[in-house]
Sequence to fold (565 residues):
Amino acid sequence: MNENMQIVFGLLGGLAIFIYGMNMMSECLQKAAGEKMKSILALLTKNPVLGVLAGALTTAVLQSSSATTVMAIGFVSAGLMNLPQAISIIFGANIGTTMTAQIIAFKISDYIYIIIFVGFIIAFIAKSEKAKSIGQTIFAFGLLFLGIETMGDVMKPLASSPMFTQLIASVKHIPVLGVGVGTLMTLVVQSSSATIAVLQNFAAQAGPDGMTSILGLTGAIPILLGDNIGTTITALLASIGQTKDAKRTAVAHCIFNISGSFLFIWFVKPYATLIRFISPKGPEVEVISRQIANAHTCFNITMTLIWVCLIGVMVKIVMFLIPDGKKTESDPFETLYLDENVKNQPAAALQLVAKEILHLSDQVKKVLHDTVTVVKENQMQGVDKIQEESAKVTKLTDKITDYLAGLFSSGLLTEQQASQTAGLMYVLGDVERIGNLSAGIALSMKEKETNQYKYSQEAMDELAKCLKTLEKMFDSATKALRGDTTVELEKLMKRKDKIVNLDIMMRKSHIQRVNKGKCKASLTTPFTNILHLIDRMGNSCINLADAATNEVALKYFLPKDEMTM
Fold:
């Protein structure tokens, strides 16, 4: 194999190891952080400054500004976050992503294999999931640096290539060309952290004198600016098919990085002088990696300080670029919150699922209320509508179930999150069951008309009373799941006892009416079937009340200000 091919394959292999290590570290850090991710995400609903902090912390955990940006877009699309909040998150994400470059700037080549070995041993012998995740994080951290070292080794021959040095000289003296190179690199690799790692490695190669960098800080800064522009493509792709606000959030990310690059491109040399002043001193090839990391951090902090004060202006700009169109009514039985792009962040995805289950419960309340109306007012024309709504409840439930199944199969869930996901499926099943059983009662009423059954008015009044009690039970149960502390679960249990007593009383009353000739004996089976459906609905309401007392309660996943909405 000739030298050029060795360089290409070595560079690609090193890049692959680096990206794999970074992704693995991100997944393992998420598992190790576990529920602490929820605490970080809780900051998202606060003021812009806290939003910036939350974005930086989340990105530091996820090791990916793209992941944080996609998550913010998903939250905006789901209505869990407004546009200014999402924009502040993205500002913070741009700061958080500089952590990777700062870590890479440490020279730990002598300890790479020790780190990999220690991480492997911890992951191999650890019993607890958290300790295993920590071991895997250390192992992935070592792989990340192994990838960097591999890239550095294969790049050394390039420093002595006349053709390559001429090409680099062109980039050094034409900043716009450097921006284009950086943008293209990130568009191809889809990771600004990876391209900045390549940049740091390449810049650390010595020129002909053996002391100065082949690229130099003034040549590296334009490429760095291009890297920041290139990373915005991920956000734009994630916003395709999303709401207007989601698209605006992605555009805000673009404006942030493009405006910063346009501003800094005019001051590359003075900016490089400033970075050299605040960075460690020494031969350029030894300190340039840290200088690039500092340039990356200072760029994002400066732009965040500028834009966080002008967040209102940013909102107006993106509103102007993507104006509101004609509002179209959405189907209430379609998903409102689920976002496939957020699945890679389980703590965030479970929040969306909790909101979607509450949305489903609101639709089931309508089905139950319509059923009460059918029984109470004998309005048989509403039965067909109830059947359609029940079918839509089932379809919506299936979509939520598929989403939860996707979370299971992602392999990113901690043991606690896996348990919570199973619990949410349990809650989801009871909510759907109440909707379907309500439709079953409505259908029985229609069959009564079709087959010319004639229940006494007393029996119909008793059924209506029973269903009204059930309606109150379901409403209380869903409020308890939200975290409404005004709901007394003991009273809810007593309502179930009341339904049981009504059930017994209605059966006795029916037998008495049959004996007296007020009801036909042939009506006993259909009437008993209705009572059986009511009893099952009562049991499902009690199941939901029980769920409200543990970590499957939807309040466990929702921000405090949304619990009792």
